[in-house]
Design a protein that fits this description.
By secondary structure, this protein is an alpha/beta fold. It has helices spanning about 1-20, 55-75, 125-140, 175-190, 215-220, 225-240, 255-260, 290-305, 330-335, and strands at about 35-40, 50-55, 80-85, 90-95, 110-115, 120-125, 140-145, 145-155, 165-170, 195-200, 205, 245-250, 310-315. The strands form two sheets. Strands 1, 2, 3, 4, 5, 6, 7 and 8 form an eight-stranded mixed sheet that branches.
């Protein structure tokens, strides 16, 4: 009798814990507003998605990825077809209008998600908001004693921070395109919206430049992204509501530039790719007009490749050793040129 009573007690406790767990808010990041409802939406092989309102290929692709990921997440063989008939859909996605042609920090990422035992509805002003809501929907799917489903809930969400970025340093640690896209998938799952891509440093220059082919030809050990691959990554990121901000470090951290173009450097040394981490002496010569001519052409080429309104030039950790006597960079005119490279003049000996 005692054992039977204990079994009943254990079942009651476990059942209560399971019911409680079904309504735990484990979302990452936490939504702005969340209200639990009554009941549960069942997820089974009858699951269907329908698109309403504004549509574009990015929304179609996002709905197809949702179905594929849901099948992988649950093991349920759900249909991979996206419907236009919302009356029979388990999840209805309704987008108000197109987003920005090139996503910016001002893009509206808000969405609203309501799940009832009968149907789930996801609405957003823009496709990026839809993408954020899809990630929330997939995070809400859980398993209880009756199977997979989502507890009834109403969510109204918008980001607290407009810039939510991840920096990937592909210069010091080379990463091929599949690694970058895998990271973009992870970023999208957590609603990150900026890939800050560090593409040049002392240890390697990682982008094809058609204007200056020796940058990657001599400064990369053969590990670089073609311009076609860059476009592929940018398109992949846009499909997931992520901007790509490139960083080409200058005037310091530029040893890899000088392997092919030593005339840009402040000291006339032969240069080779650095094999260790650190802060090194080589830096661009701010007294030579040829440096600015080179940078105007290079930045113009890269700005046409990367559509984002932000373009990062680093500007950090120039130790100033190549700008001190007896080097020519200590001339008075050099001090006037320093600001053109985005920094104040280094300390001068008294």
């Amino acid at each position: 009798m005692l054992i039977r009573g204990l079994k009943v007690l254990v079942l009651v406790v476990l059942g209560g814990a399971m019911a409680l767990r079904a309504q735990e808010n484990n979302l990452m990041p936490q939504p702005a507003e969340l209200t639990w409802g009554q009941g549960r939406l069942t997820i089974d092989d009858s699951f269907r998605v329908a698109l309403e309102g504004y549509t574009e290929p990015r929304l179609q692709a996002s709905a197809e990825r949702l179905l594929e990921r849901l099948a992988g997440q649950t093991g349920i063989p759900v249909s991979d077809e996206v419907s236009k008939d919302s009356s029979k859909a388990t999840l209805v996605i309704d987008c108000d209008h197109a987003g920005e042609r090139v996503q910016t920090v001002r893009e509206d990422e808000s969405y609203r998600l309501e799940v009832t035992p009968q149907q789930a509805r996801l609405g957003a002003p823009t496709p990026v908001g839809v993408l954020r809501g899809i990630e929330t929907f997939l995070q809400l799917v859980d398993l209880d004693k009756s199977g997979f489903g989502i507890s009834a809930v109403k969510i109204v969400d918008h980001p607290r921070f407009p810039w939510r970025g991840l920096l990937i340093d592909a210069s010091r640690h080379w990463m091929p395109v599949p690694v970058i896209t895998r990271n973009l998938d992870a970023m999208a799952a957590l609603k990150f919206n900026v890939l800050h891509w560090h593409l040049s440093d002392d240890q390697g220059f990682r982008v094809e430049s058609r204007r200056f082919p020796k940058l990657y030809g001599m400064g990369s050990d053969g590990h670089f992204y073609t311009q076609a691959q860059i476009r592929e990554v940018i398109a992949y990121a846009r499909e997931r509501g992520i901007r790509v901000v490139p960083e080409f470090d200058m005037p310091g951290h530029t040893t890899s530039w000088f392997v092919g173009y030593p005339e840009l450097a402040s000291a006339p040394n032969p240069y080779s790719i650095e094999r260790a981490w650190g802060i090194f002496d080589p830096c661009m010569d701010p007294t030579r007009e040829e440096v600015y001519t080179f940078l105007d052409a290079f930045i113009g080429e890269m700005a046409a490749l990367f559509a984002d309104e932000y373009f990062h030039i680093g500007g950090d950790e120039v130790n100033g050793k190549q700008w001190q006597p007896p080097d020519s960079c200590d001339r008075p005119e050099a001090r006037q040129e320093d600001d053109r490279l985005g920094r104040d003049s280094p300390p001068r000996p008294s």
